[in-house]
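OP here, attaching both records as promised.
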Amino acid sequence: MEITGQIIQLLPEVTGTGRSGNSWRKQEFILETRGQYPRKVCMSLWGDKIDQFSLQSGAEITASVEVESREYNGRWYTDIRAWKIAAAEAGVGPAASPSSMGSTNASSGAAGPSYPGGSMGSPLPAEPDYSVQGGDDMPF
């Protein structure tokens, strides 16, 4: 899956040692998508990819990401890992829209759109219209 936007914040690099004794590094950053309803997405880079891509706040990028969720003590946690980062192309439409999120499935080689819910998910619904109708300001 690909997401295009501007890096608005770089979080401090985190390091640690795993159970096997190997050290690890993680750099998280916040990407703000473009379009009518911009979204902020926290993503992470791991290990040597931190040095390979050397992110800068304010840069316009397209990030190829993997999304994975895991359960721990009855709660679910989602991790968005960037595995490839490129400078955003001029003329790219709204970021993270279904039309701009076409990707190639590495395991099957099949190309086609993918959505935040996964390749078998459906596109996100449109934002509701909360404009005032009548004298009531409640959306329902």
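Record two, same layout:
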Amino acid sequence: MTQTLVSLEGVSKAFGPIVALRDVSLAVDAGEIRGLCGENGAGKSTLMKVLMGLVRPDSGVIRIGGEARAIRNPRHAQSLGLGLVAQELSLAPRLSIVDNIWLGGEATPLIYRMGKLRARARAALDALGAQDLDLDQPVLDLPIGQRQIVEIARLLARDARVLILDEPTATLSDVEIERLMGILQGLRAHGHAIIYISHRLGEVFDLCDSVTVLRNGAHVSTGPAADQTRESLIEAMLGRSFGDMYPPRGQGVTQEGGVAIKGLTVPGAVQNLSLFAPKGRITAIAGQIGSGASLANRALAGLEPAARGAVLVDGKALTLGSAPASAADNVLFVSDDRAVEGLFPDLSCLDNLIAADLRAHAVAGVLYWARARALGARIARQVGLNEARLPSRASTLSGGNQQKLLFGRALARATPGVLLMNEPTRGVDVGARADIYRLMRDLCARGWTLIMTTSELEEVVGMADLVYTMYRGRLVARREGGEIELTAILADITHPVAKDAAA
């Protein structure tokens, strides 16, 4: 008989007047990978915090191996065989792999035999196919994919039977994702239960045996992944017919101009890149992590001091290596790490909207708040943000609404410019993605030049009017119209055939 390793029955949780969970039940068996899907704010994170002892539920029962448990804190959860790999990794980068595996471990005594702990750490890494990792190597030296493996090894070394993974592939390359999928399938074969949280629905269908959907804090559905379609899953998450994810493309360029790049080079990363991104269209630079695609955008934003080459924006030379110079030329940047490089999390939403262009809201050097508030209200309506949230700190918003603030900065500009976007929908749920895709098309209609890099090829095919593919720092191909096709782009960025891709 199949053994249920973990179950939550009738769990509810409210934070003041906000109901985060409403009578939610969930059960996961040994040897099962359960996808957990829902928009940002659906209750996924709160449910997992309840399971890990980070949040006390107001009501409900948690059973581990069939036995009711009141989980007091994360160390207690760990002792019960539960483990979490959060979206933001929790490793200490300057410590060794073995130290990270045992740091803070519930079962690690004050005085311990290091040889025994090293043997258990080695066994956990070997079980994940990471025999090449040196236990004494600092985590700082590891690429992100191997750090993810160390996080999972930490759980296995501590005898976790139930693993929770929250957006585990958000920063991984295709090769690293494929390796992670193989690891998780191996853990399933050895009887582990895995709860897999991801906005990337393709991964849910490729990996998961079953899918649970939450919406507005309530359980909507649970069933075999094979019985779902992408459309039915999105509809369950949104509670309405979703229609087409991607808005229709425009009817072509209505204005002359754009961004002309000639010989852009970032030493060790981008080599002699030349392309043209036309005004009023979305140009995608597609490539795997490490291809140089994202660094090309960073160079245009003035964030790579060593960048060199010639760049013209609507015929005017752009100064490389200076973020203030790029911003002054109306070249804006949406980073793939909005928490570090995009938002001012402790400032209000209104402050975040106007931060990139304070002079436009000042009279004689003094901010004119009435004007700023009126503009903020208008932009909030355009991006689909509740105006009542404008005084709130940006950190209180969901990932999707935070991303809308960054796009709102462009809409607040009186004059169209260039919007550079690295991973524009990273960590954003499907509903907010549709809103962001609409905003991108709205900006095109206003005369903006959009240049996007993304690791999600479906997004490239769905949104780009023009695609340049890169591999190991070099341009591979230029694709437009019917050439923007998934398998062709995948071939370009994994096993390229040299061809003339000059703009």
